[in-house]
Amino acid sequence: MTRATDFLAALAGRAQEADAAEGRFRAEMEARAAALAHARAEAHRRANFLRLVATSAASAESPEAAEIAALSLIRNRFGWDQETPARAEVLTQFAPLARALHAAAQAEAGGENEDLNDPAKALADFENWYAETRESSFWDLFEHYMPETPRVDF
Questions:
Q1: Are 58 and 101 in contact (CB under 8 A)?
Q2: How would residue 117 be classed by pLDDT, with cut points 50, 70 and 90?
């Protein structure tokens, strides 16, 4: 081989290394962008749905009524017309969050029982439970398209 051939082979090797480096970077960038998009979507789902639950809980006359209203929102959102053990378990675990939202709406900021009904803690507890038992995020349920079912009278 000549020095020119060695020189050109080295340049080609560096070009291949640059191609590989760019490919790795693009893969990392795409993975990071996908993770950020998922986190953004989850944050919006959480905020939007819990705004509905909080509004419902705030207007409820009692913690029990707040719980019933919140669980009804979940059932309606996901079309859970029939009770199954898995659905019942989710609803049971979500109930403390509805009660905490009701209590927080009724309490004054800085009140003495603020820690007992902390919605942030109740939400974290629910989300952690769901992630551990279902191996996914509760908010992923919102990704599934629920088609409108037309009502037909015969």
A1: yes
A2: confident
